[in-house]
Amino acid sequence: MNILISGANGQIGTELTMHLFQRYGKDSVFPTDVREGGDGFVSDYLDITSRDALYEYIRTHNITRIYHLAAILSGNGEKNPLTAYHVNMEGTLNVLEACREFSLERVFSPSSIAVYGGDAPRQNTPEDSILKPETMYGITKVSSELLFDYYHRRYGCDVRSLRFPGVISYKAEPGGGSTDFAVDIFRQAVDQGHYSCFVREDSRLPFMYMPDVIASIDGLMDAPQGSLRRRTYNVTGFSASAGDFAREVSSLVPGFSIEYAPDFRQAIVDQWPESIDDGPARNDWGWKAEYDLTSLGKDMIQHLKSSSAGGNPNGNSGGHVKEAS
Ligand SMILES: NC(=O)c1ccc[n+]([C@@H]2O[C@H](COP(=O)([O-])OP(=O)(O)OC[C@H]3O[C@@H](n4cnc5c(N)ncnc54)[C@H](O)[C@@H]3O)[C@@H](O)[C@H]2O)c1
């Protein structure tokens, strides 16, 4: 199996690439992006909006599976809606067409809780709620989910997707989403002892820690086709407000202070669920999150402190540099 990862230098791609290197071997995994990665991370340049470039890459490297992570997220998407539309829709369509044309074995591409708008219930929101998002990012994610269903139904493409909540990690910087405050608060607490939060204290959302994100991707991609009853599943770890994060950080970083200065992203998160139902993922392929806010908080602070003291936040010795090809 030869795996292409798009958006490999992003928040999720950085860690998924390292994980897939370990699981399948570096010679079988091809990280790609349009920007340089940090920390000695090497990937090939591939603009996912170019179908010709994608097809050429697939032929050259005999790609059989794609993890498609390249996207413009909610905050940046509202600053540049046309770019978000172009990258998210063209990228997804190109990957789906590649799946059909090259008879790829399997494709993974994340969706998001941004598919929900103000009409959906905000507590324990199930997959099949009303999906009327008001952001361009959410619109592209709903459209992508519908395309996954279409390509599966019409062409038999094995496309699988997870609706992620806010993703928290310490290795790569978050990429311009509206839940980035839940990562920034830990980073700023360790660096400066203070955080100016861009949403209100009572803003409550679902979240997942990166090890659970990686485990959920493996769980879905390893599931037998027959066990799946839908293309896109909700997955979640825990729900917490900005104030809950502040209290957790205060208990771990003495003297930590916070102020709340909501910006344009407040209106975005106000539309999103406070918690989502991931019952179908639990039932169909055995999904279960490991981390809650307390266990995540301890792990985040420990790694960020070691990083700011000059240690390696990745907790490994040599990074995961692959020779550029
Ligand atoms: N991080 C989260 O909280 C979160 C939550 C829900 C869903 N998701 C989804 O997970 C996926 C990955 O998100 P992330 O947080 O790693 O995002 P990110 O912004 O950190 O990374 C996205 C990567 O895509 C790359 N990219 C942008 N345009 C490209 C193009 N034209 N061609 C190739 N690469 C391009 C960027 O350079 C970046 O490295 C996205 O589909 C996102 O919608 C993320």
Structure write-up:
The chain is of the alpha/beta class and 325 residues long. The protein has one domain (3-308): Rossmann fold (3-Layer(aba) Sandwich), CATH 3.40.50.720. Helix content is 42%, strand content 15%. It has 11 helices and 13 strands. Strands 1, 2, 3, 4, 5, 6, 7 and 11 form an 8-stranded parallel β-sheet that branches. Helix 5 (136-155) links the parallel strand 6 (111-112) and strand 7 (159-164). The protein is globular and about 55 Å long. Residues 314-320 have low confidence and may be disordered. Residues 3-235 form the NAD-dependent epimerase/dehydratase domain. One of its GO terms (molecular function) is L-threonine 3-dehydrogenase activity.
N- to C-terminal distance:
18 Å
Look at the structure and give the CATH class: Alpha Beta
Mean pLDDT: 94
* Beta fraction: 15-25%
Low-pLDDT runs = 314-320
- Domain count: 1
Q: Give the name of the CATH architecture.
A: 3-Layer(aba) Sandwich
How many individual helices? 11
How would you characterize the largest beta sheet?
8 strands, parallel
Instruction: Name the CATH superfamily classification.
Output: NAD(P)-binding Rossmann-like Domain
Specify the structural class.
alpha/beta
Structure keywords:
11 helices; 3-stranded mixed sheet; 42% helix; globular; Rossmann fold; NAD(P)_epim/dehydratase; single chain; oxidoreductase; binds nicotinamide-adenine-dinucleotide; L-threonine 3-dehydrogenase; 8-stranded parallel sheet; NAD(P)-bd_dom_sf; 325 residues; alpha/beta
